[in-house]
Structure formats: structure tokens, C-alpha cells
């Protein structure tokens, strides 16, 4: 069970919002790049987010260029999971590959600073602040195994191969 506070963003949060283009030169210095995570959507995000908190978006989260570093810097900030109504296929897969859980569900009732409990295996999000639960699309078992290992690279290091 994941528990944390919500950082709410709207529809259309792109990889440019997550990693502003002016900081792409920092790709080889991930800790420094992480200090600018979501800066163009919320200038204070990286300094306020705490371990286990949630990024909550609306429709089409992570659209734009592939930028594999986008979900990685979100994870490096301590985010426990991303919740969105819909997400870019590339962002979704990159998130799983780096070990960042991403759940697709109705986020319309979730507001900034709400306290959530997220059950990845059950696919539920309980809003402790507002007292309601939403059901998310279930993460396939194969992806849950990747997440449990901390990402695809860690999974391959540990198991040597991936079995479907």
C-alpha cells in the first residue's frame, strides 16, 4: 500500500513540462536534472514533494517526445506513483521500465494536497481526505514484477531474462 499527498496537475502535461528543454544538457547529471522536475508546471514541485507523494494528472499525461528521463526524474524526486486519466503510451512504458508505478483512473475528484492510499495489486485509489475510492486499470502481473524489482534493468540483473 502506497500512501502520500497529491500534487495535482491538469491535462496535457508533456515531457517538456516534466523536463523543460532548457535543462536537457543535464541528462548526464540526473540529481541536478531532478531539481527541475515539473518546474514549468509548478516551480516549487521539486522542493516540496516528499517521499511517497503522488503526481496526479488529467488526460494525456506525458505526451510529447520520448524523453526516457522524464519518469526517472519524477521517481528520483520520491514520487510513489503517477495517477492519470490517460497517459502517453511511451511515457507509460518508460515509467514501468524505470520502476515508477503509473495507474490510469478517473482523477477528476482528486485535488491538490489530498491524502491517498494506493493499492497497486488491487488497482484501487482511496482518497483519505475526501473519503472515496476509485478503481484503476489493473497493472499486468508482468509489469508488477518489473515494478517490484525497481525497474526493467534491475529485473534483468536479478533474473537474467524476462519470462512472460
What does this protein structure show overall?
The protein has 164 residues and is an alpha/beta fold. The protein has a single domain, classed as Alpha-Beta Barrel (Aconitase, domain 4). Helix content is 29%, strand content 18%. It is built from 7 helices and 7 strands. The chain has helices at 15-18, 30-34, 45-48, 69-76, 89-98, 141-148, 152-159; strands at 2-8, 54-56, 81-84, 102-104, 115-119, 124-127, 132-135. β5 and β6 form a beta hairpin. α4 (69-76) crosses α5. The two termini are 25 Å apart.
TL;DR?
The chain has seven helices and seven strands. It has helices at 15-18, 30-34, 45-48, 69-76, 89-98, 141-148, 152-159; strands at residues 2-8, 54-56, 81-84, 102-104, 115-119, 124-127, 132-135. A hairpin with a 4-residue loop joins strand 5 (115-119) and strand 6 (124-127).
Name the features.
alpha/beta; Aconitase, domain 4; 164 residues; 7-stranded mixed beta sheet; single chain; 7 helices
> What structural class is derived from the secondary structure elements?
alpha/beta
Strand order of the largest sheet: 4-3-2-1-5-6-7
Helix content range: 25-40%
CATH architecture: Alpha-Beta Barrel
Q: Could you list the spans in which at least 5 consecutive residues all have pLDDT below 50?
A: none
| Total domain count | 1
Order of helices and strands: EHHHEHEHEEEEHH
CATH class placement: Alpha Beta
CATH topology: Aconitase, domain 4
- CATH superfamily label: Aconitase, domain 4
The end-to-end span amounts to 25 Å
Count every beta strand, where a strand is a DSSP E run of 2 or more residues: 7
Note the main sheet: 7 strands, mixed
Q: Roughly what fraction of the amino acids lie in strands?
A: 15-25%
Q: What is the radius of gyration computed over CA atoms, rounded to a whole number of angstroms?
A: 15 Å
- Per the principal axes of the C-alpha atoms, what is the gross shape? globular
Number of helices: 7
Mean pLDDT: 95
Amino acid at each position: 500500500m502506497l500512501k502520500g499527498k497529491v500534487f495535482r496537475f491538469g491535462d496535457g502535461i508533456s515531457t517538456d513540462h516534466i523536463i523543460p528543454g532548457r535543462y536537457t544538457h543535464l541528462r548526464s547529471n540526473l540529481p541536478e536534472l531532478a531539481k527541475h522536475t515539473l518546474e514549468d508546471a509548478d516551480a516549487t514541485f521539486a522542493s516540496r514533494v516528499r517521499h511517497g507523494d503522488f503526481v496526479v494528472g488529467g488526460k494525456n499525461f506525458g505526451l510529447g517526445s520520448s524523453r526516457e528521463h522524464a519518469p526517472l526524474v519524477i521517481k528520483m524526486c520520491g514520487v510513489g506513483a503517477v495517477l492519470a486519466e490517460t497517459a502517453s503510451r511511451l511515457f507509460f512504458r518508460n515509467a514501468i521500465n524505470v520502476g515508477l508505478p503509473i495507474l490510469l483512473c478517473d482523477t477528476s475528484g482528486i485535488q491538490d494536497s489530498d491524502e491517498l492510499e494506493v493499492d497497486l495489486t488491487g488497482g484501487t485509489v482511496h482518497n483519505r481526505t475526501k473519503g472515496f475510492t476509485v478503481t484503476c486499470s489493473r497493472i499486468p502481473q508482468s509489469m508488477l514484477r518489473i515494478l517490484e524489482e525497481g525497474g526493467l534493468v534491475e529485473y534483468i540483473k536479478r533474473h537474467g531474462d524476462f519470462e512472460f
